[in-house]
């Protein structure tokens, strides 16, 4: 059946990729809902509350599916990654426990108040529930990011007598500089996803000629927030994250750019195919010296190539890492362009009547999903061959008593469950979109 480690990695990668399709939208929509509720509170106009009510329902469906798809990953720490859990449980157990006990319950409690409590709460009370939902969902995100950041850049730990990791400084671990930068980049990207979805639904309604007032409102909110946060993904959050990779994971940076030779004035590769066998980039199109500036702040900076490091420390799939990075960066640039053009048309008062642009907005909503998936692939493939960078290799972390056949069987089971969940999810979302926003009186 093959190597058990391969199946352990495949199963976790498959389940977490599917799972993250849902939390990224809920975290993005949480801020959109706060904005809509704040505008409704400030202006007293019912249309903002009507829009918020619609997106709260969409949030609820995504939240439910996200919870269901997230549970298997918690169990995989014990079933598939027992040695890793034994080695690092004294560290990562802190944030994983906090995510479950605090943020998750805070988020789910206030979601219930938002969905069923609008008629019982005052307008300010309902806005407060939306604010708490946003804080809860983003707090939940931070605890997960802090866990991953420790695996990327371990800090605040000590090695116990039995060789396992134990917490030496809780605050150093929780406020890991890598976690702060990664969190900012991730959450801004989540808002981009939420904004693109909001704009896409507004475009769909405008093209269909239904719910015209809500279509314009969603187009305006989605476009403005989409442009602002698409720019913030690139700068400063993406720039800060890139400089941390250059400082702490120079091998990853070299692999992301398919750079084999070291040297100053390193060019940024726009297009090309990494040829690992011949240690070069085929058919490169590069911008001279830009990689040096992005990584280290000066055009003359030396950027190390892969050949400067032992080959057993190279990422294990350089091609996939390279293409994931360029898909993420390319789609990020396209999304800025799309939302920039949409914002220009909005400013000119011509967006809701420009059918070609509406079609574009409706059809590009998968782009942020693809970009965030590629971004996480960069983070995880780039960290290889380490589970905890520089401390613990992936090959050391599996569960020796769980063989390949068992993991393959459960992976097929997850795939079947995900098909059912996807069908149910699409049905519920489609029903809500067709129904559209409802007024409070209705």
Description:
The chain is mainly alpha-helical and 442 residues long. It has one domain (4-262, 304-435). The protein is 71% helix and 7% strand. It is built from 14 helices and eight strands. It has helices at 4-19, 23-43, 46-79, 82-116, 123-152, 170-174, 177-208, 212-248, 250-256, 290-296, 318-347, 355-363, 366-383, 404-435, and strands spanning 157-159, 165-167, 263-264, 268-275, 280-287, 302-303, 386-388, 392-393. The chain has a two-stranded antiparallel sheet with strand order 1-2. Strand 4 (268-275) and strand 5 (280-287) form a beta hairpin. Helix 1 runs parallel beside helix 14 (404-435) and helix 3 runs antiparallel to helix 14. The longest helix has 37 residues, at 212-248. The N and C termini lie far apart (58 Å). The mean pLDDT is 94.
Shape: globular
**Number of domains as seen in the coordinates:** 1
| Low-confidence blocks of residues | none
Individual helix count: 14
Q: Give the overall pLDDT as a whole number.
A: 94
Number of strands: 8
How are the strands of the biggest sheet laid out side by side?
Answer: 1-2
The main β sheet shows up as:
2 strands, antiparallel
Radius of gyration based on Cα positions = 23 Å
Topology diagram in text:
Blueprint: H1 4-19, H2 23-43, H3 46-79, H4 82-116, H5 123-152, E1 157-159, E2 165-167, H6 170-174, H7 177-208, H8 212-248, H9 250-256, E3 263-264, E4 268-275, E5 280-287, H10 290-296, E6 302-303, H11 318-347, H12 355-363, H13 366-383, E7 386-388, E8 392-393, H14 404-435
Antiparallel strand pairs: 1-2, 3-6, 4-5, 7-8
Helix pairs in contact: 1-3, 1-14, 2-3, 2-5, 2-7, 3-4, 3-8, 3-14, 4-5, 5-7, 7-8, 7-12, 7-13, 8-9, 8-11, 11-13
């Amino acid at each position: 059946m093959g190597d058990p480690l391969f199946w352990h990695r495949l199963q976790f990668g498959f389940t977490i990729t599917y799972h993250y399709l849902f939390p990224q939208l809920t975290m993005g929509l949480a801020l959109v809902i706060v904005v809509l509720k704040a505008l409704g509170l400030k202006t007293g106009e019912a249309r903002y509350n009507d829009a918020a009510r619609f997106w709260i329902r969409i949030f609820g469906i995504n939240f439910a599916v996200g919870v269901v798809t997230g549970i298997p990953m918690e169990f995989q720490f014990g079933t598939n990654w027992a040695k890793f859990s034994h080695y690092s449980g004294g560290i990562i157990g802190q944030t994983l426990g906090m995510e479950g006990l605090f943020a998750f319950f805070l988020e789910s409690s206030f979601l219930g108040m938002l969905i069923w409590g609008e008629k019982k709460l005052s307008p300010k009370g309902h806005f407060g529930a939306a604010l708490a939902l946003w804080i809860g969902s983003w707090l939940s995100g931070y605890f997960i990011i802090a866990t991953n950041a420790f695996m990327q850049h371990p800090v605040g730990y000590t090695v116990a007598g039995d060789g396992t990791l134990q917490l030496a400084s809780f605050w150093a671990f929780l406020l890991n500089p890598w976690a702060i930068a990664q969190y900012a980049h991730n959450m801004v990207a989540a808002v981009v996803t939420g904004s693109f979805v909001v704009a896409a639904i507004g475009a769909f309604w405008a093209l269909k000629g239904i719910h015209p007032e809500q279509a314009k409102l969603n187009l305006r909110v989605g476009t403005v927030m989409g442009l602002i946060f698409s720019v913030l993904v690139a700068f400063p959050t993406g720039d800060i994250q890139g400089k941390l990779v250059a400082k702490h994971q120079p091998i990853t940076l070299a692999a992301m750019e398919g750079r084999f030779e070291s040297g100053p004035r390193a060019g940024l590769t726009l297009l090309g195919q990494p040829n690992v066998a011949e240690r070069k980039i085929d058919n490169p199109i590069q911008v001279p010296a830009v990689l040096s500036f992005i990584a280290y702040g000066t055009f003359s900076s030396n950027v190390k190539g892969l050949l400067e490091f032992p080959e057993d420390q190279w990422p294990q799939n350089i091609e996939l890492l390279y293409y994931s990075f360029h898909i993420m960066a390319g789609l990020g640039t396209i999304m800025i362009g799309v939302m920039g053009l949409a914002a220009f048309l909005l400013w000119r008062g011509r967006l809701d009547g420009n059918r070609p642009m509406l079609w574009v907005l409706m059809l590009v909503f998968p782009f942020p999903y693809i970009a965030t998936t590629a971004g996480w692939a960069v983070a995880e493939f780039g960290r290889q061959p380490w589970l905890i960078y520089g401390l613990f290799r992936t090959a050391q972390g599996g569960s020796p008593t769980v063989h390949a056949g068992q993991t393959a069987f459960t992976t097929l089971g997850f795939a079947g469950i995900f098909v059912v969940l996807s069908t149910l999810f699409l049905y519920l979302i489609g029903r809500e979109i067709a129904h559209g926003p409802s007024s409070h009186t209705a």
